[in-house]
Amino acid sequence: MPTTDLSLVGESAVVTGAGRGIGRRIAEALTDAGVDVAINDVDGDALSEAERALEGADGDLLTYEADASDPEETEAFVQTAADAFGGIGIVVNNVGIAGPTKPCEELTHEEFMSTLSVNLGGLFNTTSAAIPHLKRGGGRVVNVSSISGKRPLEDRTPYTTSKMGVIGFTRTLAVELADHDVNVNAVCPGSVEGPRLDAVIEGQASSQGRPVAEVEAEFRSASPKEEFVTAEDVADTVLVLCSERTRRVTGQDLNVSAGVVMY
């Protein structure tokens, strides 16, 4: 079967929160396509595992242990990547936490703000540090939001608030950077198979006093396909958004949800 050359923008990228899960799959897709990729994570062991897993790819991999919600650590990560690769052409803001699962009136201020600090603060810190590098040669920014930023998710106020904020950030930055040939888009995954989704389902079941199997079936039934999506589905979408094939696509929030959300 013939293959299609996506002609990826630039030759280097930074991907946050990429020690495991969706972030690692995105880093794998990019390095397999020949892009040099720098990844960060707060979990040093996960970074070591990622380094072993991605060994032998066409692109080089640089790992950097850092907390994306810390502006100084993030600036150092971005600069290290730029120095190592001679610039940055792609930024993928994947870092995020699920936050607490409980009714809004039971949340503390710290619980609410700590979720925003990672999910929006990490996004801001990485992107703002990378913008001067992106402006030098054009590029792509892809932000990982969620379909939960578009529709309600009971007992998940901090998370859904942060993910809607990602969409607002994406649209505004797309306008700001348009004259510099930098496209900014978001992907909005639905329920992604894996340990994180399992924890969300278990938390939801616990907070609502329902069986885990019942909540899982409800999550699946939200899709007309009655399926969860995979990390590979999200990574493939990011890869396309980082390519020249989407040079006139900017300011968009693209669903990868098996049909759960269609707007």
Quaternary structure annotation: single chain
Contiguous uncertain segments of 5+ residues: none
Radius of gyration equals: 18 Å
SS field, number of helical segments: 9
Percent of residues in beta strands: 5-15%
Instruction: Write down the secondary-structure element order.
Output: EHEHEHEHHEHEHHHE
- Quickly count the domains: 2
The biggest beta sheet reads: 7 strands, parallel
Structural class: alpha/beta
Strands side by side in the biggest sheet = 3-2-1-4-5-6-7
Q: In CATH's first tier, which class of the largest domain applies?
A: Alpha Beta
Task: Write the CATH homologous superfamily of the largest domain.
Answer: NAD(P)-binding Rossmann-like Domain
Helix content: 40-55%
Q: What's the total count of β strands?
A: 7
* Approximate shape: globular
CATH architecture of the largest domain: 3-Layer(aba) Sandwich
What distance lies between the first and last C-alpha atoms, to the nearest angstrom?
Answer: 33 Å
Descriptive report:
- The protein is an alpha/beta fold and 263 residues long.
- It has two domains: 12-190 and 230-253, 3-Layer(aba) Sandwich (Rossmann fold), CATH 3.40.50; 191-228, no CATH class.
- Helices cover 45% and strands 14% of the residues.
- The protein contains nine helices and seven strands; from the N terminus they run βαβαβαβααβαβαααβ.
- The chain has helices at 21-32, 44-53, 71-85, 109-119, 121-135, 157-177, 195-208, 212-221, 231-241, and strands at 12-15, 36-41, 61-65, 90-93, 139-144, 182-189, 253-256.
- Helix 1 (21-32) crosses helix 9, helix 3 (71-85) packs parallel to helix 5 (121-135) and helix 4 (109-119) packs parallel to helix 6.
- The longest helix has 21 residues, at 157-177.
- The model has no long low-confidence stretch (mean pLDDT 94).
- Pfam families: adh_short_C2.
- Belongs to the short-chain dehydrogenases/reductases (SDR) family.
- This is SDR family NAD(P)-dependent oxidoreductase.
